[in-house]
Amino acid sequence: MSTQLDDRTGVNLVPVSAAPRHTRAPGRFPWPWVAPALLVAALFTLGPLVVIVVFSFMSRPPQGGGVIYEFTLEPYVNFLFQTDFLGNTTFDPRYLSVFGDSLLQGAITTIVCLLLAFPIALWIATRPEKLQNVLVLLITIPFWTNLLVRTYAWMLILNDNGIVNSGLNLFGLPKLELLYTPMASQLGLIYTFLPFMVLPIYASLAGFDFRLAEAAYDLGARKSTVVRRIILPLATPGIVSGVLLVFMPAFGSYVQPVLLGGGKVLLIGNLIASQFGDSRNWPFGAALSVIILIVLMIALIAIALYSRKSGKKVEISL
């Protein structure tokens, strides 16, 4: 540590390189201050997941709901195999079929939302800045209303005396059976999760200087070429984020298949609810939940590997 001398008195002044022994970046708190908040966050986020995972390895009581704290793999075995009264175990594809139907439902919802959201997000990103704010506000307005209220509104639209059938009646056309069908369930999912696809794609395109696209037009590029080679690569992080934000909740959705689909198609969300409710088989319901978590974790790992390999930062946020 060096010191500085006064030329007139020769007295040592304050050390030049003296620095505080404990430095902390502005805005950072010591660990004891944030420990209670971290504990509460872990309790209410990781806590329920830990309970579900533990319950999935427990035994089912002879009567009623709940679990018996005896380790077993029977809930996971029952997902693929069935044991009859004689003790014979055979492959049972019923639950696997439900799992496949749920994957198909989530895939259809994701693809349709992507096809609708990309042109909407691109159009919003090319508007003046003040108009962009208004359009984004209109996209987010549905989030201000409870999901059940919006779903019941679709029930009023699609029922026999709803807006659609009333319009068909005006033109002398026969009524259509729209409510309590798989199509109604799919329509409700697309409506619910479309904003989750629009907003991430818009966020990726909002900062782009579209004069570069105009320059490509001036150089003779076609519109399809500009979209494929300039705009689409720029929107890729938003597309990936939107795909995850739509597919994950659509895969395990419960409200729309029950209220709009009438429960006619058994999906993984309905199956889990029935295991915790009607069947009172908590370990099997927990095992189904863990299987969904594993599928979603695989999807997240794939996205992380893609982000690392491509060098594009993908954020799963709106």
UniProtKB/TrEMBL annotation:
Q: Which InterPro entries match?
A: MetI-like, MetI-like_sf
GO biological process per UniProt:
transmembrane transport
Gene3D superfamilies in UniProt: MetI-like (1.10.3720.10)
Which cellular compartments is it found in? Cell membrane
Bilayer topology term? Multi-pass membrane protein
Record's GO cellular component terms: plasma membrane
ABC transmembrane type-1 domain location is 99-303
- Record keywords, A-Z: Cell membrane, Membrane, Transmembrane, Transmembrane helix, Transport
User: Has keyword Membrane?
Assistant: yes
Segments crossing the lipid bilayer: 31-57, 103-125, 134-157, 188-210, 230-251, 284-306
Q: Which family does it belong to?
A: Belongs to the binding-protein-dependent transport system permease family. CysTW subfamily.
Q: Which PANTHER family match?
A: INNER MEMBRANE ABC TRANSPORTER PERMEASE PROTEIN YDCU-RELATED, INNER MEMBRANE ABC TRANSPORTER PERMEASE PROTEIN YDCU-RELATED-RELATED
UniProt-recorded name of the protein? ABC transporter permease
Species assigned in the record: Leucobacter triazinivorans
